[in-house]
């Protein structure tokens, strides 16, 4: 049986849905070199993006590839499913995400120091939304838990890596809670 690699990759992306697919998973299924898979994905990404008659795009966020609907179709999808695409994240959640993104791995005390409030509930809500996860404990007194952003963070904000975040220059604590919150709010409301 001859295999149509692009067809298989497209099927894998579709079935994975919002979880996305890592190249290592595609390699395991197809048993072809990583560079070859990456080339197929980039070629498919160009094909989807250049075809105005398609309602889907192939996107790479964090370390995963996704088959996503085009942003310009968001309102039509919302009408079909009666969805309100408002920002589900509070100001304190956006601030905490910014602190964690810029300081990974980040203990709760760092979040509280920069944001100026108790972060216990905020961290729990961000973990429930799968935007952050615990990656272990620091070897400092009290052995605080350390948090990092997840691939869902990249997907939600439409950024490919930490390098896509705005540059924080002067007063780090002030800039991270104001500039980053504005950046994240703009990204999520697009």
In short:
The chain has 9 helices and 5 strands; from the N terminus they run αααββααβααββαα. With 190 residues, the chain is α+β, with helices and mostly antiparallel strands.
Characterise the protein shown here.
It comes from Candidatus Malacoplasma girerdii. Keywords: Cell cycle, Cell division, Chromosome partition, Cytoplasm. One of its GO terms (biological process) is chromosome separation. Pfam families: SMC_ScpB. The chain is built from nine helices and five strands. The protein has 190 residues and is an alpha+beta fold. Strands 3-5-4 form a three-stranded antiparallel beta sheet. The protein is globular and about 60 Å long.
Structural class of the secondary elements? alpha+beta
Q: Order of strands in the sheet with the most strands?
A: 3-5-4
Described by the principal axes of the CA atoms, the overall outline is: globular
Mean of all residue-level pLDDT scores? 83
What is the percent of helical residues? Answer: 40-55%
Roughly how many Å apart are the termini? 44 Å
Radius of gyration: 19 Å
**Contiguous runs where pLDDT drops below 50 for at least 5 residues:** none
Provide the succession of SSEs: HHHEEHHEHHEEHH
Number of helices: 9
Instruction: Tell me how many strands there are.
Output: 5
Query: Largest sheet, if any?
Result: 3 strands, antiparallel
Q: CATH superfamily name of the largest domain?
A: Winged helix-like DNA-binding domain superfamily/Winged helix DNA-binding domain
Beta percentage is 5-15%
InterPro entries: ScpB_csome_segregation, WH-like_DNA-bd_sf, WH_DNA-bd_sf
Keywords: Cell cycle, Cell division, Chromosome partition, Cytoplasm
Organism: Candidatus Malacoplasma girerdii
Protein name: Segregation and condensation protein B
């Amino acid at each position: 049986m001859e295999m149509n690699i692009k067809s298989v990759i497209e099927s894998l992306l579709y079935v994975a849905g919002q979880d996305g697919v890592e190249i290592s998973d595609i390699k395991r299924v197809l048993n072809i070199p990583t560079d070859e898979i990456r080339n197929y994905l980039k070629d498919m990404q160009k094909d989807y993006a250049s075809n105005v008659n398609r309602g889907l795009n192939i996107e790479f966020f964090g370390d995963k590839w996704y088959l996503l609907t085009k942003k310009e179709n968001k309102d039509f999808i919302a009408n079909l499913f009666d969805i309100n695409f408002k920002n589900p994240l509070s100001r304190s959640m956006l601030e905490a995400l910014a602190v964690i993104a810029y300081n990974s791995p980040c203990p709760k005390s760092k979040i509280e120091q920069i944001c100026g409030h108790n972060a216990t509930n905020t961290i729990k809500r961000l973990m429930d939304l799968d935007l952050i996860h615990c990656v272990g404990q620091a070897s400092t007194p009290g052995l605080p838990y350390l948090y990092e952003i997840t691939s869902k963070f990249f997907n939600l904000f439409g950024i490919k890596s930490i390098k896509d975040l705005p540059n924080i220059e002067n007063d780090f604590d002030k800039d991270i809670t104001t500039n980053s919150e504005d950046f994240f709010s703009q990204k999520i409301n697009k």
